[in-house]
Amino acid sequence: MARTIKSQTVEQLGGGHSVLVRQRIEHAAMDRLMDQYYALTDLAERERILREIIQLVFSHAFAEETVLWPVLRRNTPDGERLTARVEEEHQRINDLTADIQRLDPQDPEREEKVRQVFALIRQDIRDEEDELLPRLQDALGPVRLRRLGVAWRAVRVSAPTHPHPAVPRRPPGNALLGVPLSAYDRFQDAVGPSVRMAGGKRRLLFLIGLLGAVGAAVVGRRR
Ligand SMILES: [Fe+2]
Ligand SMILES: [Fe+2]
Predict the structure, then answer these.
(1) pLDDT tens digit string along 169-210?
(2) How far is residue 184 from each of residues 86, 99, 204, 208, measured CA to CA in Å?
(3) Ligand 2 centroid vs 197 CA: distance in angstroms?
(4) Is the pLDDT of residue 58 over 50?
(5) Measured by CB atoms within 10 angstroms of the end CB, which terminus of the chain is less buried, N or C?
(6) Closest-lying ligand to the alpha carbon of 26?
(7) What does the alpha-carbon distance between residue 171 and residue 157 come to, in Å, rounded to a whole number?
C-alpha cells in the first residue's frame, strides 16, 4: 500500500543509496534554501541563494525526467497520468525561472514570480513524496531502488543547471538536447553569467555535452 516517503525510516526506503532517500535529502535541501531566501534582507546574498536553488532544482528535475519517470511509466498502471502532472509542474518551473532570470532583481514582478516558483517547487515535492515515489517503492524492491539511486545520481551530476523551457520533458529528446546544454550551464556557474565564450570553446563544450547526452540516454533506457 503506497504511503508517503516523508515519514518512513531510511531502512524502510531501501537504505542510504536508495533513490527515495536521495530524493528526500535533496527536497529537504531545497526547502531549507527557500526558507533561507525569505529570511535574508541583503540583495546580493538573496541572489546567491536563488542561484543555488536554481542549480539544485534543475539538475534534480532533469535526472527525474531522464531516469525515474520512464521507470514509473513502465512499472505502474497510472504512471502515465502521475508523471504527466509533475512534468507539467516542471515545465511551469522552467518557464517562470526563465522569466526570473530575464527580469531585474529590483523589479516587484520578479519577486512575485520567485514566490510562484517556490510554491510550485513545494507542490512538486509533495506530489513526489506523497504519490509518485511511494508508487515506485511499491513497484520495485529495495535492490532496484538502490540501482535507480545510483543511475539517478550519475545523470544528475552531468545535468543542466538552468532552465531550458524549449527542451522536451521526456527521453530521448530531453537527454539529447538538454545534456549538451549542461556543459554551457556549468561553465556559466563557474565563471559567472557576464562572461561570454568564444565560438570554438562553445563548440567544444557542446561536443563534451553531447557525449554526456548519449551516456544519459543509455543509462535511462537500461533501467
Ligand atoms: Fe524530486
Ligand atoms: Fe520534481
Answers:
(1) 999 888 888 878 888 888 888 876 544 445 555 555 555 555
(2) 26, 19, 10, 10
(3) 31
(4) yes
(5) N
(6) 1
(7) 17
pLDDT tens track for 141-161: 999 999 999 999 999 998 999
As given in the structure block, the three cell numbers for residue 197 are: 565564450
Q: What separation in angstroms does the CA of 176 have from each of 22, 75, 86?
A: 25, 24, 21
Query: Under a CB-based contact definition with an 8 Å cutoff, are residues 2 and 138 in contact?
Result: yes
What residues are neighbours of ligand 2 (ion), with CB under 5 Å?
61, 124
With 0-12 / 13-18 / 19 or more C-beta atoms within 10 angstroms meaning exposed / middle / buried, residue 43 is exposed
Cβ contacts of residue 194 below 8 Å, gap of 6+? none
In the numeric block, which cell numbers belong to residue 220?
A: 535511462
DSSP state of 154: H
**By C-alpha distance, which of 146, 149, 220 is closest to 179?**
220
Ligand 2 centre distance from Cα of residue 148 (Å): 16
